[in-house]
Amino acid sequence: MKGLIGRASKAAFFGLLITGLNAFAATPESVPGEFIVKFKDEAVAVSSMKELSQDLGSYIKDVIPGQNIVVIKRPVFEIQSNVMKSLAMNPNVDIVEPNFIYRINKTPNDPMLGQLWGMINTGQADSQKREGIAGIDIGAAQAWDITTGSKDVVVAVIDTGINYNHPDLKSNLWTNDAELNGKAGVDDDGNGIIDDIYGANFVTAAKPTGNPLDDHGHGSHCSGTIGASGDDGKGLVGVAWNVRIMGVKFLSASGSGSLDGALKAIDYATSKGAKILSNSWGGGGYSETLKQAIERSNAAGTLFVAAAGNESNNNDSNPTYPATYDVPNVLSVAAIDNRGQIASFSNYGKTKVHVGAPGVNIVSSITGAGYDSWSGTSMATPHVSGMAVLLATAEPNLTGIEMKERIIATSKPLAGLRGKSKGGLANAYTMLTNTLPQPDPNDPVNWQTVDVAHSTPHPYTNKSNLVYEVSVPGAKQISVYFSKFDTERDYDKVEFYDANGKLVGNMSGKNDETFSPVIDGEYVKIVFTSDDSVNRYGFDITKAAWR
């Protein structure tokens, strides 16, 4: 059976919150792949286009007369900083700059925008009154000045269906024109499903219907994050203000579905031209037939976005499906909270989980005309699916694999995800501009370090109660680095106290090559306690970062 990867926050099914510290600096927007080049010598600037193109190794898009300036275009997949370095080494070049973009600031007028910390995090409290850290978001505000999506892009939400009557969703629905303009009760497009106008229903896989109406809320919640209509003065807004959402239901009102339903759902979405398949579900064991269905979607050029799972599991060592299938278009998404820490329930994996996205206390549309705050990697996944809509709008010729690679390569390094995912926090703006993110000044990996040597016994003993102290005179903040960290999760833990005896945070489980929570001041007391059951390796602290 397949199960949902998301729960209402009020259900308290998972532990949701841990804390961290982070912030990001903005990168100026520019035309992807374009640069302004000024030459040192006027004689060079009046050379033929062919000579200039050969000299710069670039296509000359335009010339600004009398200024010794040309506008060049390079492949958009090239990293901007690398191109600029290469061009600057040319002895004939005086100035190299990105072709910057200047715009009015575009912000939607949807009244619930301030509740969507995953889009724009100013440090506001989330739905559980927990204050965030400004900048821990997907960079939507900057991205929306470039594009807000397009009705040319179709995203299939493979889930519990879609509330096609919701006021924030009904203007962004995909429609099957053959059925919409055909005869009621007739299979007008000949696909074996009658009146599949807004999508299809495969809950009873042997007898699919054309009604994907959501009777749970989960699929509609995901749909709202992807593409609730924007700038319409009501409700909230999705990552993509403009999109066509296809409802593909194979999960029932109880939140579960079967393999045969999943196979038919993926094939339906692929056959109907969805560019992005959003999958906030998981379960079961390895299925070759499910993998083959995803491979068929890959062959069609789609992006298969999948929730990493909610079991606090290492997907590298214990695969979760469909998120860990080795198919090139699968993009696996972990959940973070509004302070930049990976959610306590989220699965992780340095190779099998690709990026993180907001997934704790996320407000979106549900059944009826309502809204609710839910948590899960289910809620993180549609943030990335919505970002993919923006990318497909800006660069419609990209394949699903190319979109996946771009999203990972331009994700922002995040201390809370280090060692937990291949990339960092997915960011719509750097994705659209194909730029590398700015280093995070609040991440201990970017601070000075001093050598430290503290270790537990390996393995540690029953009922351990060990205390270690680290001081860095003159530091305003410190964080200790664990080269190896392996304790029995939730039972054997490490706690961190500042000089005033205040508990700052704790760690448990497997956290190799990880920094501790940041402690204000020059001192931290580290207390390790264990129970009398499983005794694991323990930890090795090898350095302390400080600033």
TrEMBL record:
Keywords: Disulfide bond, Hydrolase, Protease, Serine protease, Signal. It comes from the Bacteria. GO terms for biological process: proteolysis. Gene3D superfamilies: Peptidase S8/S53 domain, Spermadhesin, CUB domain. CDD domains: CUB (cd00041), Peptidases_S8_Subtilisin_like (cd07473). Residues 1-25 form the signal peptide. The active site is at residues 159, 218, 378. One of its GO terms (molecular function) is serine-type endopeptidase activity. Residues 457-546 form the CUB domain. PROSITE patterns: CUB (PS01180), SUBTILASE (PS51892), SUBTILASE_ASP (PS00136), SUBTILASE_HIS (PS00137), SUBTILASE_SER (PS00138). It holds the Pfam family Peptidase_S8. The keyword Magnesium does not apply. The keyword Glycosyltransferase does not apply. Belongs to the peptidase S8 family. PANTHER family: CELL WALL-ASSOCIATED PROTEASE, SUBTILISIN-RELATED. This is Subtilase.
